[in-house]
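cron nightly-structures :: item 1 of 1
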Amino acid sequence: MAFVVEVDANVSTTVTSISNSARIGDDGANGSDPTPANNISSNGAILTTPTAITLVNFAATAGSGGVSVTWETGAEVGTAGFRLLRSATGSRAEAVEVTTQLIAAQGRGQGGAVYRFRDTTARAGVVYSYWLVEVETSGATSEYGPVSTGSRTLAGQRMVFLPLVTR
């Protein structure tokens, strides 16, 4: 036997957890219950704040004339737009904004959209990392990434790739 509890989608943002408890009663019609201790069950859940978008894809590809940064959303709820940050070291602390203005959201509700941004200030031959910042209409932000234009190695080090052999 099982039961399901559904939580209203309009839970207040101040609610951080929900606890449910169930007690099964026995009317004795089939004799006394041999295991009365198993008639109580409780379960709790910690609620996390969902982001306003569902990110389906996020990629950065170096090419002639700069880096093409693309992303796709599956849903956008209350999204005003997006900003992009870039770092040549792979460090988020050293990332700078490369978008001169907010890229307006195109998706609405459960409908997403595909976005493309051309970073023409990127230098050829440099491996960049990008972060996507979603800005909600409330001013709240969510960050995604990083994605990179290539692989990074430490200066002066070589990478050796060995085959995986299993028996």
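cron nightly-structures :: done
Residues 53-148 form a domain with the Immunoglobulin-like fold (CATH 2.60.40.10).
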